Structure formats: C-alpha cells, structure tokens
Amino acid sequence: MEPMFSPALHRQRHEFVIDFVKTNKPKKVVDLGCSECSLLKQLRFHHDIELLAGVDIDSAVLEKKMRGLAPLSTDYLQPRDDQLRIDVYQGSVTQKDARLIGFDLVTSIELIEHLTLADVKLFSEVVFGYMTPVAVIVSTPNADFNPLFRRMSGFRHSDHKFEWSREEFKSWALKVCLDYGYEVEFTGVGQAPPGYQENVGFCSQIGVFHRLGVRAVRDVLCSNDAEDVSCYTLLYSKIYPSLHDDNILRRVLVSEVLYWAEKLGRRWVEEKTGEKDDADTPDQAGGEGKARYRAPQSPLQLEEEQTAACGAAMKSLVEHREVGELFWADGGGQESCKLGRCVSVPLSVLWGCCPKICALSGSLGNLRQLLMDNGKVNLSQDGSALLLNFHEQEDHDDFEDSEYAEAMRCPHSVEPEEDWDANV
Fold first, then answer.
1. What pLDDT was estimated at residue 292?
2. pLDDT given at position 149
3. What's the pLDDT score for residue 418?
4. Strands 204-211, 105-109: parallel, antiparallel or unpaired by DSSP?
5. Which residues make beta-bridge pairs with 346?
6. Rounded mean pLDDT of 287-296?
7. How far is CA 32 from the centre of its chain?
8. CA torsion sign, 119 to 123 to 125 to 130?
9. Contact yes or no for 76/241 (Cβ under 8 A)
10. 393 pLDDT tier (thresholds 50, 70, 90)
11. Model's pTM, two decimal places?
C-alpha cells in the first residue's frame, strides 16, 4: 500500500513552520536552503516578522524566484504597522556570516540530507554554535518510513547523501543539544497508513530545538570570529511599505480621514435633508435591519455600525457650529464650499470615533498638524474641522470606486494560493 498524503507532504512541512510562527511570533526568521523561496513567500504575510531571510547555495534558482518576494499591490494600499525587510543570500550553510547571528528562528527543511556527514558537523557548528538562534526547526526524511514506498529503491532523491532512521536522527539531535546548550522535541509530518504509524513513524521527521536559558548572543557578536564575517552574497533585499515611513504614514492618515469624513458628512446631510438611502444605512426600525445592526456579520456591517456611532457624536457638534462654520463667507469672498452644500466635520469627532485615525495620529494636535500642510485636505480657518463640499457628486463616486476604498472593506493580508509542485 503506497502512502498518500493530503495535503501534499511539502505543504505539510511548510504548514508546520507557519503554525510555529503563529504561536511563537518570532521577529527574525531565516530559512536555510530556501531554494525557490516558497516558504518565504508564505511567511511574509505574518506581521510579527520584521526581518525575513533566505539562504541557498544555488544562485540560479534564487535569481529566478526571488522577485516573487516583492510587495503586492495590497501591501501599498494597506501598509504594515511594523517594518518588514526581506534579504536573500547566496551561500553555503557550512560557512559563517555575522548577518545571521541572533535570529529568533532558523528553519532547515529537508536540507541536511543533501550535505555530507562532514558538512553536517559544520552545519551544526554554524547554526547552533555561531548563529545561536532562539529556536531551530530541522526536518529530514525518515528512513524507517521508506519501505512503505514499494516502488522506490535507494534514497528518495538522487542528491541525498544519507537518510537517517529515527534513532540516528535522535542521536545527532541530542549531541547537538549537549554541545551547544539546546533542548529538542521530536515530531514529524506525513502520517503512515493505519496500522503502520507506531512502527515506522512520520514520513518527514522533525526536531524542534529551543535554546536553554538566556544565552549571551552578545558574546558571539563581540568575539573575533564574528568580526567582518560576510561570506554570503546578498542577491535581493526589499523593505516593505510600512507606517514607519513618514510619507506612507501621512498618505494613509489622509486617506483614512477623507474616507471617514466623507461617510460621516454624507450621513449628516442625509439625515438633515431626509434623503437617507436605506440600502446604505442599517434599518434600525425594521426587524431584519435591527438584527443585522446588532449582530454584524461582515467588515462592511461593522463599519456601518461604527459610522452610526460616530454620526451620533458628530450631529450635535455640526449643528451647533452651523451658523459659524457650515455656511459663511469671510471678508475676502465666499469660501470654497457653496451655500447649503458644505459640511464641517470636526477633527475631534474623527479622532475620537475612528480608532485607526486615533492610532495613526497619536493626538488631536498631531492630527491637525499632519493635515494642515496637505493639499488634499480643506480645513476650516481655525484648523479644527474638515470642510466637505457635497455638490461635486462625482468626487464622492470617484473615491468610493477607488482602490483604497475597496481595500478598506477587504480583510488585511490575503494570502495568494501557491502553485505547488508535488514532491516528498
């Protein structure tokens, strides 16, 4: 009986790493033997990671695949809160490079079996003795499982130098722990057919290593061995758009302010003129609308609930300021808003009711200062409110149809489906 794996075995190995990342939230992750960068492409969507690196000896494969690590359009429309940098290196895992010291997680997925036993010893010294990561995930074929592949002779891949049994893998892993101060737990992916699991184990055996105590990575960095050691060649480096960039922060903040001011202002006009569109606003009188309002099922419905709450807070402020600010002309001529079509949305309402605007600006004073120098924003003379002109209907439609407005309604960081190649 030939074993069948669902999902495919290579996908199970990657999912094991991803589950570890979700649970432990490492900030610095490096994948040794990253090859076609498939694992890196998935890990970039996990926003706790701030530095993601890959190392492989085959520069031709890296140069062909590493461009797929570039930011997606959604990464620009919805920038990350924290910075992400992706570095791809060409180099051997048997050589030291100071740029990889002190990572939170090192992964080595189906790599060590491609090394000679002498190189495995060097690999152990480099990864556990020199790089000193907090955690290491090593997967390798389990030779005990091979008899279940009845049509296979020899090793699973022509480039494999060895394939260890569970006892051989355990012996190597325990020696690494003893030599370098780690502990290890053994697991795997790829279940055997019913009745075989206890005898043969997993198809791919995995060791998860954890560094014992607070090991002094600083000592390694300060040692002579770490000085100017840069054996790897940096082939690719990309910094993802994030709110750490002041220009991006301002752009996102202005977009948020315009979006919410437009929604709140239009809601106020609809209520003031009695032209409310029931399709766009929850029906608080009807039973169906009431149920939807109390138990929203989608981001758009949650957004409508937030708009209603903000609108209630804005109503008294706008109506109170109507004579002085909604419709007026100063000594030099009429203001840009036309009579009867101009709505003032106080910045205090936007800052207090919209959590993202509050988080982006930090304070009401900062919000006012960041908007004052932006040509897309029309503020009142005292800088306390945003002025909206509703006679230009097409402007509203253009914004509602924009990519940013659409991105506001979509879940953050949608992971594209990988085009997996079948292998074990």
1. 40
2. 85
3. 43
4. unpaired
5. 385
6. 43
7. 21
8. positive
9. yes
10. very low
11. 0.74
Spell out a b/e string for 14-37, using b for 16 or more CB atoms within 10 Å of the CB, else e: bebbbebbeeeebebbbbbbbbbb
Q: Pairing state of beta strands 105-109 and 135-141?
A: parallel
Q: What is the pLDDT of residue 115?
A: 97
Closest by CA to 210, choosing from 270, 307, 128, 310, is 128
With both helix axes pointing from N to C terminus, report the angle between 393-400 and 246-273 in degrees, rounded to the nearest 10. 130
Q: What is the mean pLDDT of residues 386-390?
A: 78
Residue holding tokens 């090859």? 35
β-pairing, 329-330 vs 233-239, is: unpaired
Residue given tokens 């002025």 in the structure block: 387
CB distance 35 to 27 below 8 Å: no
pLDDT of residue 217 exceeding 90, the answer is: no
Omega of the bond leading into 416 within 30 degrees of 0 (cis)? no
Q: Could you tell me the two tokens for 26?
A: 């490492």
- Three-state SS sequence of the chain: CCCCCCCCHHHHHHHHHHHHHHHHCCCEEEEECCCCCHHHHHHCCCCCCCEEEEEECCHHHHHHHHHHHCCCHHHHHCCECCCCEEEEEECCCCCCEHHHCCCCEEEEECCHHHCCHHHHHHHHHHHHHHHCCCEEEEEEECHHHHHHCCCCCCCCCCCCCCCCCHHHHHHHHHHHHHHHCEEEEEEEECCCCCCCHHHHCCCEEEEEEEECCCCCHHHHHHCHHHCCCECCEEEEEEECCECCCHHHHHHHHHHHHHHHHHHHHHHHHHHHHCCCCCCCCCCCCCHHHHHHHHCCCCHHHHHHHHHHHHHHHHHHHHHHCHHHHHCCEECCEECCCCCCCEEEEEHHHHHHHCHHHHHHHCCHHHHHHHHHCCCCCCECCCCCEEEEECCCHHHHHHHHCCHHHHHHCCCCCCCCCCCCCCCC
Give dist(CA 138, CA 229) in Å, integer: 24
What does DSSP say about strands 333-334 and 329-330: parallel, antiparallel, or unpaired? Answer: antiparallel
Map tokens 């006012």 to a residue. Answer: 368
pLDDT digits (tens, 9 = 90+) for 46-66: 999 999 999 999 999 999 999
Residue that has been written with the tokens 């992750």 in this structure: 29
Distance CA 404, CA 386 (A): 20
